[in-house]
Amino acid sequence: MIVTKQKTAIVIGSGPNGLAAAITLAQAGLNVTVYEKNAVIGGACRSMELVKKGVMNDVGSGVHPMVAASPFFQNLPLSGYGLKWINSPVVMAHPLDDGTTVNVYKSIEETAANLDGVDEKAYIKLMTPLVKNFQTLINEILQFPKIPFRHPFLMLHFGRYALLSAGGLAERSFKGERAKAFIAGMGVHSIMNLNKAASSASGLMLAVAAHFNGWPIPQGGAQKITDAMAAYFKALGGNIVTGTEIGSLEQLPVYDMLLADITPGQFLKMASSQLPDTYKSKIRGYKYGPGVFKMDWILDKPIPWKANDCNKAATVHLGGSLEDIITAENEVHMGKAPARPFVFLAQPSLFDTTRSDENQHIAWGYCHVSYNSTFDMTERIESQIERFAPGFKECIIARHVMYPSDLEKDNPNLVGGDIAGGSQSFKKLVMPSICYKTPIQGTFLCSSSTPPSAGVHGMCGYRAALTALKTLNS
Fold first, then answer.
1. Domain holding 29: CATH number?
2. pLDDT under 50: residue ranges of the chain
3. Which residues are CB-neighbours of 447 under 8 A, at least 6 positions away?
């Protein structure tokens, strides 16, 4: 879509969605400026020297299953701007207390073979049609909740499982404990109570992505994704202004179009004087979800996993059995600090030698906590790692801790530590209360609070920009 007469657009926020919106507008011929609060662009897709000078840690996202699958990213020439991907031999490892792991490989059959034998055929039957039609499936999902679907039978097969709770999918589809634990762990990505409908959807989609293109990490860290996007945006004539926090829309110069990569609560503060009471009321009713407690480590050697296969995976899920995982996530949703938290862990330096010198390794891990929790989860997270890697604590040279409040201070989009831009639910999936258009003419939201929700896929920004361009040309 090309704008015949050049217009001026402003984008607030330089996270993946903000840059996706900016690129889309610049491709359409607009004069686009991005304003970023921090000195370093990227939002939750940044890398910094968090622990030690010369060692790069990912501030937020570290593993990126959806970038290769995203219809937006597929059309960007980011490899020409320095972005290189690394895939580990095992996509994801889920260690168990018996010293073995459930390994997710790119191969469906190889993955199925390391489940309990009784579940091998069931897993192949579930995954094969979804992986075979992966790109079609992802294109449909990332357009959600837009209907009708162009491929209803494929979506019916996906929905048959995705609309179940994560616990329900594990119990109904599989009989062995290995598959149940793995499926429950995948469901934790939903940031929902695992007994709630549709809490299996995110994990199922990520499992399919694992078999199609793996869960790659960018060489050099998440910042490389942002830097490549920014370089391409600037090549299109775009401009980025850093170190500038926009507290009110009145601060901005004159524009024809504004896209804000911020959550509804922030938008209310920024534009309150220009919003009608009905929209203000809608935003005040917007709910944020659980927070995150995040840790980064510098280690004097690789993590000493009991199961050697964990050393072959860039991503490790630490939660144990189905029952352990559901208990931990239920405690979060009850406002408690989980005694044995489910920990998402990444160990990129095993596969990316640019991240640290040969004598040191880096890892990051996080767990869900209640909204704006002030509980120190350091010991519980490290003990959970120690459960599957005895001697881990002795490997620690230094650590960096981020409470939910630290995450929000660094990136205001992470309200109360919520990394998803709002509470997740089946209702939000099918009937989102907040979408792109706002009551202010020419002003749109483009954050992960808008469809199709969280993830480094750029589709929120891309779809918001397309919506905005339609109104500009109407």
1. 3.50.50.60
2. 3
3. 13, 15, 17, 18, 260, 261, 262, 263, 413, 421, 460
